[in-house]
């Protein structure tokens, strides 16, 4: 991906507190530019108008009957009891697939994984000592695997781990004594299940209940699973949605150009890794179907992660 574009554009803080990109051809960028030029000590700041509409759109509070849809899919504490098998699948995924598509934050996911295992053991012990005991009104089968997260955050994290456990289990010989234990491993069993998870994550992104980058990571995980399983058409359709979300999140712009927006080197690296994974999958799917690319090099200047950095760290 060469830095073939010189579009400026700006990042704005979205309703979930994370940056969103407005290109120089967008109404919000033009309105903001005009307002900046007109603003002076002697003149009040004009009404933000379209910028407000851009930042706050689709910031609806989810209804309880909508978030209840998540319950069918969310990982529970009881799903995290087979530690050895789960850890094997986690390790296999990161050893085999992560180097090819490094869009996940391994350190964060490992921390979440270990915390969930400890939580599951605690709840199992409490349940064994007193089968009728409830934790905050919930039985053992109802307790979330991820403590302290919103339903939408748990949905995205559940999606990522289900993909990891599914792809990480490919090719494992589960004959013999491990069959019963392996049957308890939470995985994605069908394309319909994967598609429904994708719809729910997209909804969480649209109502700004999860960070855009986190939602894109969860959707990319589903796309990778669909590609690995050779269900290419659903993968291609999902790729189109992710591409638009990636543009909105500004992943096509090299984070090294925006020093005040992306201050941490680890954050800048993760953004590059997420976008590069999406870019590669777009090429693979387009080649398989012989259809036009979703991501054109003329629209992109994000540098390849780990490769030569073509941009000095500066804000444009």
TrEMBL record:
Keywords: Nucleus. Residues 37-61 are annotated as: Disordered. InterPro entries: AtrR-like, XnlR_reg_dom. It holds the Pfam family Fungal_trans. The keyword Ligase does not apply. Residues 235-311 form the Xylanolytic transcriptional activator regulatory domain. The keyword Nucleus applies. GO terms for molecular function: DNA binding; DNA-binding transcription factor activity; zinc ion binding. GO terms for biological process: DNA-templated transcription. This is Xylanolytic transcriptional activator regulatory domain-containing protein. It comes from Kwoniella mangroviensis CBS 10435.
